[in-house]
Amino acid sequence: MTLLNSKKIAPSLSDNNPKYLELIAALFSGLLIVSNVCSNRLISVGPLEFDAGTLMFPLTYIFGDLLTEVYGYARSRRVIWAGFASMFLAVLCLYVASIFPSPVSWREQGEAWNLALGLTPRIALASLLAYLVGEFANSITLAKMKLSKVAGSLAFRFIVSTLVGQFFDTIIFASIAFLGVLDFNLWITLVVSNFVYKVALEIILLPLSLIVVKRLIAAENLSPETKEPSFNPFRWKVERP
């Protein structure tokens, strides 16, 4: 008997391999990078005032809900860290591109590029920390509610986890990026506008989110988490369900 056959090889994640996890993780990371780049610009939409990255950033929480609900917290944790690495790499690349001077013939365009895309260290730090805390708060809340006997409906879990995650995300980002820079009344308006918009978008897109989750669950046919995983955000290992 060969060594390969003499030992039972345990499955890495579950008896089935996810079919769409890589695609969802890639879309998730792409949204993070784009929303992070757009965060330097403040915009007004009716009575609301917020950074432009907020227009698309709430979609990452919908992806986060989908990842945790369909693939489990342990896999979602890996994707959150992959997204963080993508954001950090994007910030680093933008910084490196901005430190080199432009040729004389391209000086005006270079200055405009730095104004539009040159992320300040403060904005970059705010984006990275807010994302990390907010996404883990969202994912852990959803996972714990799912395993709880009083979890409620899927729609309820999505809304509650989003409220928790977006609260931390909004407060951390606005505090690090703009507190002391903007007038305090404008800062309060920015925080409230951000939070209201993000949660409202989650609720508006909730019917679509539920359809996508149900279809993914059917398509993936993965073994669900039946025991509480380690909620340590720094753990990389994926426990079997």
Please summarize what this structure is.
By secondary structure, the protein is mainly α.
Description:
- This protein has 241 residues and is mostly helical.
- It has one domain (18-41, 49-220).
- It is built from nine helices and two strands; from the N terminus they run ααββααααααα.
- It has helices spanning 3-6, 21-38, 58-71, 73-99, 107-117, 121-147, 154-178, 184-204, 206-220, and strands spanning 42-45, 48-51.
- It has a two-stranded antiparallel ribbon.
- Strand 1 (42-45) and strand 2 (48-51) form a beta hairpin.
- The protein is globular, with a radius of gyration of 20 Å.
- Residues 1-15 have low confidence and may be disordered.
List keywords for this structure.
241 residues; mainly alpha; globular
